């Protein structure tokens, strides 16, 4: 099957590489010429476990192509996936500029029947907007060509994207057309052998399913963070509470880890966009608004704790920071808690010495070479001359530390653990002043 994918970011690249890997012929198209040139040479601009190998294998096999020639790309695939970004607009709504631009591009170049598959996360009603854009562009061309638009939201997680795409729990497809159903069955057939994961539904339901899924997950995070803050004030330990509630199968252990707030390219913008959709639909979503507010407050917790440890005087202090990415196994720093922390530290006159196994390059791209930021190659180099250590991301490499050595290397024995990686008792026994999330102000 011939498939075109617009957008070679996290979702487009993973989709393209995975579909090529099961034998489809895939053309990935992006407006970023430099990105296309690098990808054509097998140079993958993002870090995602296993992706580089998969791209190399399928480039070599001749099943995967990269281009910025939109006309060739529209000619190529019966299926035209849209996997471009849908960032937050100023009012929190999803900015559909890129999605509608792709719709217009497809309609400008198409010469025969095409199925347009919306994989970007888009608000309910977007498929209709795409349909109207394509119809209007075709009409302006004086062309009468059949097409369908369907919704196929993506549920992959960065850091485990290939695994999620290949072995995800479901493949949601919103369409009313039998022709589209059959074609999508064929497209996903290789991923649908063990059991039928395809869930066909109405287009609007498919669009809402994606937002409902992300809002539910974000709600779990904000819920446990709210409980953590409460635990801190009430003298309870949130980790004990987490075990206590997670054992109830109606609640479960998934996604109830207290921390320094959710980040990334999806939850923050999708929660805001859903709140905006609800408002526009005349049903202000109180719960969703609260999820967002709790998260915004949580992101400032790390700075508050560091500041408390130094009685509000951070001028001239050096803070070691472990983890820049918004979560482990990715280099993505979009809306990462580390950014809120670093920016607040700089504002307060502190210096940052940071280490991340994958996100240093991304950090430099965002902040450039600043005098008050040092990026170190090794974890423990951040500790040289540092007054405190803050852990922002739960990379595996941060889970084991020698507390005694840590205390000896830090100027002040202050550790702020934004991911509750350590035992407060062990930290205390080693003489550290240890702050964590929902486990008492310090021990
Ligand atoms: P991204 O920013 O990493 O990549 C988007 C790509 O689209 C960029 O390379 C950009 O150059 C390209 N692009 C923009 N306009 C284009 C055009 N007109 N033609 C061709 N290419 C164009 O975005 P992403 O993280 O891959 O997300 C894409 C969509 O998928 C978003 O709607 C997002 O919400 C959704 N999503 C993302 C994830 C995730 O974990 N990143 C998971 C599920 C869903």
From TrEMBL:
<dbReference type="InterPro" id="IPR014026">
    <property type="entry name" value="UDP-Glc/GDP-Man_DH_dimer"/>
</dbReference>
<dbReference type="InterPro" id="IPR036291">
    <property type="entry name" value="NAD(P)-bd_dom_sf"/>
</dbReference>
<dbReference type="Pfam" id="PF03720">
    <property type="entry name" value="UDPG_MGDP_dh_C"/>
</dbReference>
<keyword id="KW-0560">Oxidoreductase</keyword>
<keyword id="KW-0520">NAD</keyword>
<dbReference type="InterPro" id="IPR001732">
    <property type="entry name" value="UDP-Glc/GDP-Man_DH_N"/>
</dbReference>
<comment type="similarity">
    <text>Belongs to the UDP-glucose/GDP-mannose dehydrogenase family.</text>
</comment>
<dbReference type="Pfam" id="PF03721">
    <property type="entry name" value="UDPG_MGDP_dh_N"/>
</dbReference>
<dbReference type="InterPro" id="IPR014027">
    <property type="entry name" value="UDP-Glc/GDP-Man_DH_C"/>
</dbReference>
<dbReference type="InterPro" id="IPR008927">
    <property type="entry name" value="6-PGluconate_DH-like_C_sf"/>
</dbReference>
<comment type="pathway">
    <text>Nucleotide-sugar biosynthesis; UDP-alpha-D-glucuronate biosynthesis; UDP-alpha-D-glucuronate from UDP-alpha-D-glucose: step 1/1.</text>
</comment>
<dbReference type="InterPro" id="IPR036220">
    <property type="entry name" value="UDP-Glc/GDP-Man_DH_C_sf"/>
</dbReference>
<protein>
    <recommendedName>
        <fullName>UDP-glucose 6-dehydrogenase</fullName>
        <ecNumber>1.1.1.22</ecNumber>
    </recommendedName>
</protein>
<feature type="domain" description="UDP-glucose/GDP-mannose dehydrogenase C-terminal">
    <location>
        <begin position="320"/>
        <end position="424"/>
    </location>
</feature>
<dbReference type="InterPro" id="IPR028357">
    <property type="entry name" value="UDPglc_DH_bac"/>
</dbReference>
<dbReference type="InterPro" id="IPR017476">
    <property type="entry name" value="UDP-Glc/GDP-Man"/>
</dbReference>
<dbReference type="Pfam" id="PF00984">
    <property type="entry name" value="UDPG_MGDP_dh"/>
</dbReference>
